[in-house]
Design a protein that fits this description.
This protein is α/β, with parallel strands linked by helices. Helix content is about 25%, strand content about 20%. α1 crosses α6. The radius of gyration is 20 Å and the shape is globular. The structure holds threonylcarbamoyladenylate (TXA) and magnesium ion.
Amino acid sequence: MKDALREACALLQQGEIVALPTETVYGLAADAFNPAAVAKVFAAKQRPAFDPLIVHIASRGDLKTVALVPADIADTVEQLTKTFWPGPLTLILPRHPAVPDLVTSGLPTVAVRQSAHPVFRAINKALGHPIAAPSANRFGRISPTSASAVIKELGGRIPLVVDAGACSEGLESTIISIEPRAGKKPIFRLHRAGPITKEQLQQFGRVEKVRDVAGQVLLAPGQLASHYAPRTPLVLLEKPADFQPEAGKRYGLLSYTGADDGPYVTLHDWDCIESLSPGGGKLAEAAIRLFFVMRTLDEAGLDAIIAEPVSETGLGVAIMDRLRRAASGTGTGTGTGTGTGTGTGTGLAKSGMADAI
Ligand code: TXA
Ligand code: MG
């Protein structure tokens, strides 16, 4: 095993927390069976204890150590995990009593996935315990898709970041729970849109929103509107005519393709333009670049970031979800404090496995 991976594993065994790459975003990892270590994750992120963590397992066989899969959804769980694991699909299942309360925020369910990232998988396997890991950002802020973004968020608050370059998906995992139906395909409740799309899930069940008894759409406890917020106000336009600039203000455009003749690019003399999928307009590329582009615009000293919409199909659903939350969250309290630290006290270790990714 490479030095960085061994160091990360040793820290986790000692009850420490470390930032690790996954294929979606960087995660802030702790031994899921060590409540004192998990408590450090909440403290470092300034995350409220009512917001439960995702548990990552090293193999499909480990699922039984963290969840009790009911017989009536066992076949569906088998199909989903065989198809999408390792990968960016998180399943909400009845929790195994071995999982500490702090991990699930006292809920009777646990969120589980198996990461596809070779560095994460190697550490997860070597640790021999499941890993609890939320995204490695301060609560309410933009998820990090690179080691340098983790340092900006949590530098000085955690002992180590394992650097394996940029994440290959760029958006957090899709989260579903499963409702069996006698004689029919199950219903999948979509708690968070992500890289595994509705279209991909539909072959195994019917995808629906989460609703309460009154029919209101519900979200995962951590899916507050104010998530993924840059410090600069972000406005998501529905159509070009919705942009009403104020004189003397600096505006940057978060564009889809950045094409010179696009309806949003030509709308204004922008201070800067950043594109999600330069030239091509590919949703997969846009997903990978979204949080990076948001951070870049956030650091450009603008009065506002103006975002153009992408089409809400496939991965576009998850991208628009994150843009809407970023738009409703800007200017609110969480995570807007200054002085996130410049990395003092936080080691940065190259995974040495970047070529394997
Ligand atoms: O891609 C990902 O999922 C990344 C990487 C690191 O694996 N992790 C991640 O974790 O995005 P986090 O903590 O930022 O988001 C987890 C979401 C939160 O919205 C939380 O409320 C929800 O999952 N969640 C966790 N356990 C749950 C449960 N038992 N029931 C409902 N929602 C749950
Ligand atoms: Mg998060």
